[in-house]
From TrEMBL:
The keyword Protein biosynthesis does not apply. One of its GO terms (biological process) is sodium ion import across plasma membrane. One of its GO terms (molecular function) is sodium:proton antiporter activity. Residues 708-822 form the Cyclic nucleotide-binding domain. It comes from the Bacteria. PANTHER family: SODIUM/HYDROGEN EXCHANGER (PTHR10110), SODIUM_HYDROGEN EXCHANGER 7 (PTHR10110:SF86). The keyword DNA damage does not apply. This is Sodium:proton antiporter. Keywords: Cell membrane, Ion transport, Membrane, Sodium, Sodium transport, Transmembrane, Transmembrane helix, Transport. Pfam families: cNMP_binding, Na_H_Exchanger.
Length: 834
């Protein structure tokens, strides 16, 4: 085909893509449905003009459109990796990791279940070989993620639910395409009834092989990109090459799933690149991929839809009946997943509860599109597949796709409206009226001040003020006559707004390079968790999420275990430094939120709600301060260095702001401004590396601060610090119970614990010890000890504690005082130390 013709067609396609988006919004149709409609009209119109005798003038253009050099390999090797890679880059991995069980179960189980249901139903009705029918099932199991995502973004769905469905949609495509490749092999070899056990045993190998290739190539790509730190365009180019190399290497070299390789590469890049690249580079990369994916998604829909008239060319009534079987069985299979498996996961608390209305919207919103057509096209192009099988698969997959686009796609908004998902809840409706009234009052004050400053005509100002006053009066009356909002709901709404404001402040801090780029994802994930918890459980959920954000997670505990048992300090030092930085930032942000409550929330929800939010914020600030104090006590020198680094970064951030302001005011030129920013970037790079944390040295410093160890010389202190084992506990965690071992004594480095025995309780704080009485008296433990704040403990085994007891009169005094408080008489402690 002539290059000029191809170029003209491509330019025309981009023009149609640009026009389709505003047209879809005007007609209130999903964008993918509009694109598919454009493709079908182009394909049908080209076929019509070639066959009609009305005119021959358009025949060259019609032939060029129908013979456009597009094959299934272009869809699978060019467009599909682009779409999948971009989705993975935009995921919040830390929040996705919280829900990996329901995402994987829904994706993998849904694909296998749908493939089996459609395959066996079609085989039973049509009499066609089971292998071919299962292949149809795998093809039609690929949902269109963009359609599902657009549904949830247009509704006020819980974020966790939207995240699970988005993740399931992405993984669904990956699993379905991997299963398609497996079943395609059976069809090409002419196996009528495949051994499903053998097939599904190969399925994990396809997934694991592809995942390994993607992770390896992504790690190499990040290493290469860090070498090109000062060359943004070079880094972008490496990122563009990654998904295609991953797909080709997995498919052609290893024989694994290329789609899984692209998913793994994107997730690995998402996890590692933010901490290795400059924040501006990572932002640019995301923007480049958003644009590439937009074009790829639009082109794949239009070009695939061009093939629909050709694939349905010789359709008959029997084929229409089989399409009906595929439609019914596919919807039934997805309904089984949504209305049986999803509630079961909710019962075992692996998935959030999903209202039946939302499940119905997901069921009807499971549109199929370009991926389904591309897989069907791959079958029709294979000469190793029997002609009748090629024809059947092409017609059934295309007919089913057409049904979802034309019937489900065009009626989707009607179904959503019928389900009542497009309406505000009574609380939100009442709140919206109050928000409007408060906002208009603020606007009236600002307008009055502005008009006074500009010295506008008095008559015009008075006329407009009267008109605005009428609108304000109406808004106030509507707010007063609206349904009353309970204080509990007001508090929940205030907490959601508070958590949202916290997220906005954090984003602004990241843009200003106030914290390390590698912590961005973690801190924003904690902020998102606050929003979701407040929305779902109000005050209780907000408190729980706040405690979790400053608590000790599993990775930190693993790092502690590695250090205590194997003396590997790097993971613990790195995570401790992260914890320092996060707590420091959180403490500063909480102070900004106090002002937000007084300036915004109080005016909407009233004084009582504002006071409650202040109390919740004060408790959070106290927890953060307590955790920070504990870290400062443990690592005094390091805390000072980290705070100095934070001040330096803040100064650089403010310096950048001043240069930007001078440039906007025209006081400095663009050349000088660029030179100043380059100088600041170099200084920011210098401050990106945090001071080194020596865990062993710091533990010796902590031991030296204990009054109990004041009588020990330096050599004894060094030996003691090597013997002490660090243990971190969260608030509420049980440290010792009545059936626990009696061979360990704990010293409290920071935090506080509560001891309960015989109906009494004692609270112990920094510098005190517990566990020694059961060890010394060899009696059954009658007390249990639980942390009442995030605490750091230093544990000492029995032999070393007895040795310490012999040497330290201060420890002997502390042991006696502890025993006296509990009414226990101890014999000679010098003898007990032996």
């Amino acid at each position: 085909m002539d290059v000029i013709v191809v170029t003209g067609i491509v330019a025309g396609l981009f023009l149609l893509i640009g026009l389709a988006e505003p047209l879809a919004a005007r007609l209130r149709l999903p964008y993918s449905v509009m694109l598919a409609g454009v493709g079908i009209i182009l394909g049908a119109g080209a076929s019509f003009f070639l066959r009609t005798e009305i005119t021959d003038a358009l025949n060259p253009l019609a032939e060029a459109i129908l013979n456009f050099p597009i094959r299934s390999n272009v869809f699978l090797y060019v467009f599909l990796p682009t779409l999948i890679f971009q989705v993975t880059l935009g995921m919040n991995l830390r929040r996705m990791a919280d829900d990996w069980v329901p995402i994987l179960v829904l994706a993998v189980v849904a694909v296998i279940f749908s493939t089996l249901v459609v395959g066996y139903a079609l085989s039973w009705v049509s009499g066609v070989s089971l292998a071919a029918c299962l292949l149809v099932g795998a093809i039609v199991s690929t949902t269109d993620p963009s359609a599902v995502v657009s549904i949830f973004r247009s509704l006020a769905t819980p974020r966790r639910l939207a995240r699970i469905v988005e993740g399931e949609s992405l993984m669904n495509d990956a699993a379905a395409i991997a299963l398609f490749g497996l079943l395609m092999g059976f069809v090409m070899r002419g196996v009528p009834d495949p051994a499903l056990g053998q097939a599904f045993r190969q399925f994990p190998l396809l997934i694991l092989g592809g995942a390994g290739v993607g992770v390896l190539l992504a790690q190499l790509s990040v290493m290469v990109m860090t070498l090109f730190r000062r060359h943004d365009l070079a880094q972008m180019s490496v990122s563009v090459a990654l998904p295609y190399l991953s797909y080709i290497a997995a498919e052609q070299v290893l024989g694994a799933s290329g789609v899984i390789a692209v998913v793994a590469a994107g997730l690995t890049m998402n996890a590692n690149a933010p901490g290795s690249l400059a924040p501006a580079t990572w932002t640019k990369m995301r923007e480049v991929w958003d644009l590439l994916a937009h074009w790829a998604g639009a082109l794949i829909f239009v070009l695939a839809a061009l093939l629909i008239p050709r694939l349905l060319e010789d359709i008959g009534w029997g084929d229409i009946g089989l399409i009906g079987v595929v439609v019914v069985s596919a919807l039934a299979a997805r309904a089984g997943i949504l209305f049986v498996l999803l509630p079961a996961l909710s019962l075992v608390r692996l998935s959030p509860p999903v209202e039946p209305r939302y499940r119905a919207a997901i069921l009807w919103g499971g549109l199929r599109g370009a991926v389904t057509l591309a897989l069907a096209l791959a079958v029709t192009e294979s000469l190793r597949v029997p002609p009748e099988t090629r024809r059947m698969i092409g017609i059934l997959a295309t007919g089913f796709t057409l049904f979802t686009l034309v019937v489900q796609g065009t009626s989707l908004r009607t179904v959503i409206s019928w389900l009542g998902l497009d309406k505000l809840s009574p609380i939100d409706s009442a709140l919206s009226k109050q928000v409007i009234a408060v906002a208009l009052q603020s606007v009236r004050e600002d307008v009055a001040q502005t008009t006074e400053e500009y010295g506008l005509s008095h008559d015009i100002v008075r006329s407009e003020a009267k008109r605005f006053g009428e609108r304000l009066e109406g808004a106030v009356k509507a707010a007063e006559t609206s349904a009353e909002i309970l204080d509990r709901d007001r508090i929940t709404l205030g907490l959601i707004a508070l958590a949202g404001a916290e997220r906005d402040i954090l984003i602004e801090r990241f843009r200003e390079n106030a914290v390390s780029p590698r912590l961005t994802d973690r801190i924003l994930s904690d902020s998102d968790r606050l929003i979701e918890a407040a929305r779902q459980s109000g005050r209780v959920g907000y408190r729980r999420a706040a405690r979790q954000s400053i608590g000790i997670d599993r990775s930190f505990r693993l790092a502690v275990r590695l250090y205590n048992r194997l003396k590997i300090s790097y993971p613990l030092a790195r995570l401790t430094a992260d914890r320092f930085e996060i707590l420091l930032l959180e403490g500063l942000v909480l102070r900004d939120l106090d002002r937000f409550i007084d300036s915004r929330i109080r005016r909407i929800h009233g004084r009582r709600v504002a006071e409650i939010l202040h109390e919740l914020l004060d408790k959070r600030a106290e927890m953060v301060s307590q955790a920070l104090d504990g870290l400062r006590l443990q690592y005094p020198g390091y805390a000072e260095e980290l705070e100095r680094r934070f001040i330096r970064r803040t100064a650089l951030r403010l310096e950048r702001r001043e240069y930007d302001q001078l440039r906007e005011e025209g006081l400095i030129g663009i050349e000088l401004h660029t030179d100043l920013l380059q100088m600041l970037d170099r200084r920011f790079q210098e401050q990106n590396s945090r001071p080194k944390l020596d865990i062993a040295l710091q533990k010796a410093e902590v031991a030296k601060q204990f009054p109990l160890f004041s009588e020990l010389d330096d050599a004894a202190l060094r030996r003691l610090s090597r013997a002490l084992v660090t243990r971190y506990v969260d608030e509420g965690e049980l440290i010792l119970d009545r059936s626990g071992s009696r061979n360990t004594v704990y010293f409290i480095a920071s935090g506080a614990v509560e001891m309960r025995a015989a109906g009494q309780s004692w609270r112990l704080g920094r510098g005190e010890l517990f566990g020694q009485l059961a060890l010394l008296t060899r009696t059954v433990r009658r007390a249990e000890v639980r942390a009442i704040a995030p605490s750091t403990l230093l544990a000492l085994d029995e032999e070393r504690f007895r040795r310490l007891l012999r040497r330290s009169k201060a420890v002997q005094r502390a042991v006696r005082e502890s025993a006296e408080r509990r009414g226990i008489t101890l014999p000679d402690l010098d003898a007990m130390g032996d």
